[in-house]
Amino acid sequence: MKRRPGVLLGGLLLLGVAHASDTDDLVSALRQARTLAARGTVEVSVLFPPRAVPTRQARVLPAVPFRPALLAQHFTVTRAQAPPLAGRDVTRFDLTPKVGQAARWTLWIDRVWNVPLAYEERTADGTLARRAAFTQVEPQPVRRQVTVPAIPAGLRAALLAALPGLRLPPGFTSAGVRARPAGGTEVTLSDGANVLALVIAPRNVRAAPGVASRRVGDRFVWLVGNLPDEPLRAALAGIRAVDEEALGTFLAPADSKE
């Protein structure tokens, strides 16, 4: 039976809509990794922040709190061919921030299990900050349960009320908050892959790469993470006051100072 051109065109359009993008495929793997993981021998190197012993071994890839929805919003994802890794066929995904100077990521995803077998984080200028990769993989993956807490509704507005004049680095949003055992409050900022710590504390922090701080009244505000100094300092430069009580409703009862 001869098909009508309109029916054929409609079918092709449907196929186009159904075809998964590179971002969709990476997001699928990251979600799969919350319930399934490869196991074997992993070489882990952390070069930022500097450590006395930067390289160690592990049985599984160290967890990174990827947030797929934010990642899809803030990164351009491209797929590339890659040679086998630890004897497994993999696909490489490169993540480039759409705005700002956040770190870039590359992930190697197992083609059969659809879970990461390696990742690396590089600064905006290409310097390696962190890499973890399997050198040997067991024949079967293992089940696990990894939970990334949802972003509390209203947290961004509360943070801006607590620190009027704060300018979040491009691409980042507030993702969580906790009371610090040493005093003060820590807010986690995320762009889907990278994480910054925004801290309100009674004392200052020692100067170091990836650390900006300033005094506001009788409190100190720090911003710590893998960003160049300029955007870290710019985020804090306009803060006019500190009102930690604006964040109080987001702290768990056990964390409350009352």
From TrEMBL:
Q: Does the keyword Signal apply?
A: yes
Per the UniProt entry, the signal peptide is 1-20
Q: Which Gene3D superfamilies does the protein's record reference?
A: Lipoprotein localisation LolA/LolB/LppX (2.50.20.10)
**Name of the featured protein:** Transcriptional regulator
Task: Enumerate the UniProt keywords alphabetically.
Answer: Signal
Q: Which domain of life is it from?
A: Bacteria
Keyword flag Signal: yes
